[in-house]
TrEMBL record:
This is Cellulose synthase-like protein G3. Its main location: Golgi. One of its GO terms (cellular component) is Golgi membrane. InterPro entries: Cellulose_synth, Nucleotide-diphossugar_trans. The lineage of its organism: Eukaryota, Viridiplantae, Streptophyta, Embryophyta, Tracheophyta. It is found in: Golgi apparatus membrane. UDP-alpha-D-glucose binds at residues 114-115, 144.
Length: 734
C-alpha cells in the first residue's frame, strides 16, 4: 500500500497527484480514544453480566447491539485512516489522438416504461459526443427489456447524432445530452441552434409518441435500411423469451456526419437471448454479454459502464481517465477508475439522503488511500484485462476471440463477426464456462457492482477514485420514500448474499486484501446488520421506561458519562466527515434520519426475504427503480421536502411502530420525571432523539391530508402491533 504517494509521472509530465487529507492525524488520535471508550463499555457489560447487577437478558441484548455498533464503528474507522484526494491534469495529456486507446461504452437498460427510451437515447448521445476521436468510440446499449421502443429511440438518436455531434464540437457545447442542453437554452439565438432544437423536438415527439402507443408503426420508421429489423418482434416474442437481436445502428467505418467531414462513433443495439428455462443473472448477465459481444466486434482495451439514466456531463472525461489508465507506473495493476454517482434534481436538503454521501464520497476517499474505491455499477472506466483473472495470471476464455488481447481486424459488418456475436449472446452460452465465476462480472449477488469490485480487489487489482470539480456523470435517484426503501431492500439482500457467503469480506476479504481493506468492505457487506442495534435501542429502553426499570447507568454513575461520550463522539465525527466533504448540516440531519428509517424498512424486509430465499421458500429478482417521474403532485411534495409515503405498504409498519413506541415512552418518561421523581435520563434522551427524528412520521399520521400521507391502514395496524412488545415485555421486564 502506498497511501502517501505524492504524485506520479506519465510521459515526462505529472498527469495526476494525490495528497492525504489534513484531518487524518486528528482522526487517528481520536480513534485510539474512542477505542478505549468501547473497551471500557464492553468491560462494563461483561461485569454486569457476571455480577448479575441487572437482568441478564437486558444486558445481553445491550451487549449484542453494542458489539454490532462497535464493529460498524471499526469498519468506518478503517476508512478514516488513509483518506486521499486526487487531482488529474488532462490538459497535459500529450499523446496524439490517433494513439488514444479505443473505448467501448456499455449502457444497460431493462424496461421502456420505467426507463424511458428518450432518456436512454440521451445517455447514448452524451457519450457519443465525447471529446475523443469518434472512430475510437463504440457505444453498446444492452436492452434487457427486449423492446422495439428502445430500439426505435436509438435509431432516432443515431440519425440525430449526425447533426448533434458536429454542432457540439463546432460550438464547444458543454452539455452533450441534448435534453439537458435544450432545457438550459430553451430559446437559442442563432439559426443553427434553432434548427438543431427543432430537430431534437421532432425526434422527441416521435419517440414519445411511439412509446405512448406501445408499438412502432411502419409509418414512423424513417430509416429504410432498418425497416426489416422490427419484423423480428413476432407474436411469440416476449421480454422473457426471445432470440438475440444485434443491430448496428451506426458504423464508424462508413457513417459520416452531415457535414461529411467527420466519422461517427459506432452505435450498437443488443438484446441478448432470453428463455424461460435459463437464468439470466440480471445486470451482471447483461454486462457479461456486453463484454463478449464487444470483444468480438471491437475489443477496446478501455470500457466504460453506465446505467441508462446516467448521462455524461463533461466531454473531457475519457482523457481525464487516460491520465491514470496509461500511466506506466500503475497501469499494470490498475483495474478501474471509478467516478462518484451524482444525481440531478435532488431536493435542497436532500430529504431521502439520496446523495449517499458516505457511500459515494466519504468512504471512497478512504478506500482510495488503500487499494482503491469499490465499484458502484456506473460511471466506471475499466481496463478490459481485469475481467480475465488477476494481474499476473491471465485466464483465457473458451475461445480466443473473447480474450482481452485478441485483435479485431475483420471489417465491422462481416457476416462471421456478427454470427459469432449472436452466438456469444445466446442464453445458454455461459453453461460450463468461467463466465460469472472467474471471468467477467461476478454472479451471486443482487449488488453485482459491489461484489465484482470486491472480487477484483481480492484478485489483486487496484482502483482509483476520480472526483473532479466538474461532475462527470449525472444520474437519477428515487423521489418517493417507497422507491427509496425498496431500492435499498434490494441492496440489503444483495449484500447479505455476500456477507454470508464463503467470500465474506470478514474472512476471505481480510485474507486477500489485508485488514483495513477487508474490514472496510465489511461496512457494506454487513450494512443490513445495523438493524440489530436499531431494533434493540428503538424498543428496549422505551419499554424499560414504561415498566419503570432502568437499563442505562444513572447520572451519578461514572458510566453515564461514558455513554454520553461515545454517543456524541460517534455522531460528531459522522457530522464532521459529512461537512468536510462538502455536505450541509441540514443535509446531515436528514441523512442520519434516513439511516434509521432504512433500518426499520429496507434492512428488516431485506433480512426476511433473504432468509426465505435461503430456505428456498421464495425467489427475489432485481426490481428496477423507476426513472419516470410523471406524478406532478409527488414531484411537488418532493421539492417542498415533504415525506411521500404513497401507497399502503407493509414496508412502513416497523418504522411507524417505533415512532409510536418512542412517543409513548417520552410522554411516560416526562410524566415519571416530573410527578414521580423517576430519573431515566439516558433512556429519556434516547427516546426524545428518536421522537424528534420521527416528526415527519407523526405529521404523516395525524396532520396531513394529501395523497403522500401515511395510509390509515398502516397507522392503525402499527398502533395495534405496538402493544405486542409492550404486553409481552411485561413478562421479562416486570
Ligand atoms: O435485469 C436487469 C436489471 C437491471 N439492469 C440495469 O441495471 C441498472 C441499474 O438499475 P436501477 O434500477 O437503476 O438500480 P439502482 O439501485 O438505481 O442501481 C444501483 O444499484 C445497482 C445494483 O443493485 C447497480 O447495478 C447500479 O449501477 C447502481 O446505480 C439499470 O441501468 C438497469 O437497466 C439490467 O440491465 N438488467
Ligand atoms: Mn439507478
Amino acid at each position: 500500500m502506498e497511501p502517501h504517494r505524492k504524485h506520479s509521472v506519465g510521459g515526462g509530465t505529472t498527469l495526476h497527484t494525490c495528497h492525504p487529507c489534513r484531518r487524518t492525524n486528528f482522526y487517528r488520535i481520536y480513534a485510539v480514544v474512542h477505542t478505549c471508550g468501547i473497551i471500557a463499555l464492553m468491560y462494563h457489560h461483561g461485569h454486569s453480566l457476571l455480577t448479575r447487577r441487572s437482568s441478564p437478558l437486558i444486558t445481553s441484548l445491550l451487549l449484542l447491539s453494542d458489539v454490532v455498533l462497535a464493529f460498524m464503528w471499526a469498519t468506518t474507522t478503517c476508512l478514516r485512516l488513509y483518506p486521499v484526494h486526487r487531482s488529474e491534469y488532462p490538459e497535459r495529456y500529450g499523446a496524439k489522438p490517433e494513439d488514444f486507446p479505443k473505448l467501448d461504452v456499455f449502457i444497460c437498460t431493462a424496461d421502456p416504461y420505467k426507463e424511458p427510451p428518450l432518456m436512454v437515447a440521451n445517455t447514448a448521445l452524451s457519450v457519443m459526443a465525447y471529446d475523443y476521436p469518434a472512430d475510437k468510440i463504440s457505444v453498446y446499449v444492452s436492452d434487457d427489456g427486449g423492446s422495439p421502443l428502445t430500439l426505435f429511440a436509438l435509431m432516432e438518436a443515431a440519425k440525430f447524432s449526425k447533426h448533434w455531434l458536429p454542432f457540439c464540437k463546432k460550438n464547444n457545447v458543454q452539455d452533450r445530452s441534448p435534453e439537458v442542453y435544450f432545457s438550459k437554452y430553451s430559446h437559442p439565438k442563432d439559426d443553427e441552434a434553432n434548427n438543431i432544437k427543432m430537430m431534437y423536438e421532432d425526434m422527441k415527439s416521435r419517440v414519445e409518441h411511439v412509446v405512448h402507443s406501445g408499438k412502432v408503426k411502419p409509418e414512423f420508421i424513417t430509416c429504410d435500411q432498418f425497416r426489416g429489423v422490427f419484423d423480428l418482434w413476432t407474436n411469440k416474442f416476449t421480454r422473457h423469451d426471445h432470440p438475440t437481436i444485434i443491430q448496428v445502428l451506426q458504423n464508424s467505418e462508413v457513417d459520416m456526419d452531415e457535414t461529411k467531414k467527420h466519422v461517427m462513433p459506432n452505435l450498437i443495439y443488443l438484446s441478448r437471448e432470453k428463455s424461460k428455462g435459463s437464468h439470466h443473472y440480471f445486470k451482471a448477465g447483461a454486462l457479461n454479454t456486453l463484454l463478449r459481444v464487444s470483444a468480438v466486434m471491437t475489443n477496446s482495451p478501455v470500457i466504460l459502464t453506465l446505467d441508462c439514466d446516467m448521462y455524461s456531463n463533461d466531454p473531457t472525461t475519457p482523457v481525464r481517465v487516460l491520465c491514470y489508465l496509461t500511466d506506466r507506473e500503475i497501469k499494470s495493476c490498475l483495474g478501474y477508475v471509478q467516478f462518484p454517482q451524482k444525481f440531478q434534481g435532488i431536493s435542497k436538503n436532500d430529504i431521502y439522503a439520496s446523495e449517499f454521501k458516505r457511500l459515494f464520497d466519504i468512504n471512497m476517499i478512504g478506500f482510495d488511500g488503500l487499494m482503491g474505491p469499490n465499484f458502484v455499477g456506473t460511471g466506471c472506466f475499466f481496463n478490459r484485462r481485469c475481467f480475465y483473472g488477476s494481474p499476473s495470471n491471465l485466464i483465457s476464455p473458451e475461445i480466443n476471440e473473447l480474450g482481452p488481447n485478441w485483435i479485431v481486424d475483420n471489417p465491422f459488418k462481416a457476416q462471421d463477426v456478427l454470427e459469432l456475436a449472436h452466438n456469444v449472446a445466446g442464453c445458454n452460452y455461459e453453461c460450463n464456462t468461467n463466465w460469472g465465476s472467474k471471468i467477467g462480472f461476478k454472479y451471486g449477488s443482487l449488488v453485482e457492482d459491489y461484489y465484482t469490485g470486491y472480487r477484483l480487489h481480492c484478485e489483486g487489482w487496484r482502483s482509483i477514485f476520480c472526483s473532479p470539480k466538474k461532475v462527470a456523470f449525472y444520474g437519477d435517484s428515487p423521489k418517493s420514500l417507497i422507491d427509496v426503501v425498496s431500492q435499498q431492500k434490494r441492496w440489503a439482500i444483495g449484500l447479505l448474499e455476500v456477507s454470508l457467503s464463503r467470500y465474506s469480506p470478514i474472512t476471505y476479504g481480510v485474507k486477500s486484501t489485508g485488514l483495513l481493506m477487508g474490514i472496510g468492505y465489511c461496512q457494506y457487506a454487513f450494512w443490513p446488520f445495523w438493524l440489530i442495534p436499531l431494533f434493540i435501542y428503538g424498543f428496549l429502553p422505551q419499554l424499560a421506561i414504561v415498566y419503570g426499570v432502568s437499563v442505562f447507568p444513572k447520572t451519578y454513575d461514572l458510566w453515564f458519562w461514558l455513554y454520553i461520550f461515545l454517543f456524541f463522539g460517534a455522531y460528531a465525527q459522522d457530522l464532521l466527515d459529512f461537512v468536510l466533504e462538502g455536505g450541509s448540516y441540514h443535509g446531515w440531519w436528514n441523512d442520519q434520519r434516513i439511516w434509521m428509517i432504512r433500518g426499520f424498512s429496507s434492512f428488516f424486509y431485506g433480512f426476511i426475504e433473504f432468509t426465505l430465499k435461503s430456505l428456498n421458500l421464495s425467489t427475489h429478482g432485481f426490481n428496477l427503480t423507476s426513472k419516470a417521474n410523471d406524478d406532478e403532485e409527488q414531484s411537488k411534495r418532493y421539492e417542498q421536502e415533504i415525506f411521500d409515503f404513497g401507497p399502503s405498504s407493509p414496508m412502513f409498519l416497523p418504522m411507524t411502530m417505533v415512532a409510536i413506541m418512542n412517543l409513548l415512552a417520552v410522554v411516560w418518561g416526562l410524566y415519571g420525571l416530573f410527578f414521580r421523581g423517576e430519573r431515566f435520563i439516558l433512556e429519556l434522551m434516547l427516546a426524545s432523539f428518536a421522537t424528534v427524528n420521527s416528526f415527519p412520521i407523526y405529521e404523516a399520521m395525524f396532520l396531513r391530508k394529501d395523497r403522500g400521507k401515511l395510509p390509515k391502514y398502516v397507522c392503525f395496524l402499527a398502533g395495534i402491533l405496538t402493544f405486542v412488545p409492550i404486553v409481552s415485555s411485561y413478562f421479562f421486564l416486570k
